[in-house]
UniProtKB/TrEMBL annotation:
It comes from Kitasatospora acidiphila. This is TetR/AcrR family transcriptional regulator. Residues 25-44 bind DNA. GO terms for biological process: negative regulation of DNA-templated transcription. Keywords: DNA-binding, Transcription, Transcription regulation. Pfam families: TetR_C_1 (PF02909), TetR_N (PF00440). SUPFAM superfamilies: Homeodomain-like, Tetracyclin repressor-like, C-terminal domain. InterPro entries: DNA-bd_HTH_TetR-type_CS (IPR023772), Homeodomain-like_sf (IPR009057), HTH-type_TetR-like_transc_reg (IPR050109), HTH_TetR (IPR001647), Repressor_TetR_C (IPR004111), Tet_transcr_reg_TetR-rel_C_sf (IPR036271). GO terms for molecular function: DNA-binding transcription factor activity; transcription cis-regulatory region binding.
């Protein structure tokens, strides 16, 4: 099968899911494609460009998912609803790729059309909501960083949480009374994420 940039990105995503950001190599990607490593460089200049292309793919798919979610909103949807739709689809899109949050957080700092598209649409949502223009950039960047960080924590959580004995729980409640109190509700990840986006939107609204 002919070697293309798309096939190289496909293979890069598969290898990345197995070995992670730091251990990914062009040779591993070439082996996945049953090709010589040197032949990859006709299409991708190196590992940094490959990682950037992989991150861009995640962002593009998140953008497309966000487009569908926004189109499904009722005509009376608020700007907060639009922000929530974009944040939720971004989170779900990143989670579809093992290590996807790490990929976005650590990918080379190059201009990515996919990432820029996500930022542009979110900025437009905030500007159209009437938020002060000089705050919209920070607000959009804060929200996108929050989504990436939230998924990064989700993807790094152990499959099985460590056991907590009654004695340890009692000791923790004595040492950290606020953390272990009802002030820190035990929510599902979905509920926690939804509430966090609502809190951010409340803060953004206070700027106008």
């Amino acid at each position: 099968m002919k070697l293309t940039k798309e096939r190289i990105v496909d293979a890069g995503m598969a290898v990345f899911a197995e070995v992670g950001y730091q251990n990914l190599s062009m040779r591993q990607v070439a082996d996945r494609l049953d090709a010589h490593a040197g032949s990859l460089y006709y299409h991708v200049r190196g590992k940094d460009e490959l990682l950037a292309l992989m991150a861009d793919r995640v962002c593009r798919r998140a953008y497309d998912a966000g487009t569908e979610a926004l189109a499904a909103l009722p005509s009376a949807a608020t700007w907060q609803d639009r922000v929530h739709a974009q944040a939720t689809t971004l989170r779900l899109s990143i989670k579809q790729h093992p290590g996807g949050a790490q990929l976005l957080a650590e990918s080379p700092g190059v201009l990515s059309p996919g990432a820029l598209s996500l930022m542009e649409r979110l900025l437009r949502t905030l500007v159209d909501a009437g938020l002060p223009a000089d705050h919209c950039g920070i607000a959009a960047d804060t929200l996108l960083s929050h989504v990436t960080g939230f998924v990064l924590q989700e993807q790094n959580q152990p499959a099985t949480p460590p056991p907590v004995t009654a004695e340890l729980h009692a000791a923790l409640r004595e040492q950290f009374p606020l953390v272990m109190s009802p002030l820190m509700p035990r929510l599902s990840q979905d509920e926690k994420f939804a509430q966090s986006i609502r809190l951010l939107c409340t803060g953004f609204a206070a700027l106008s």
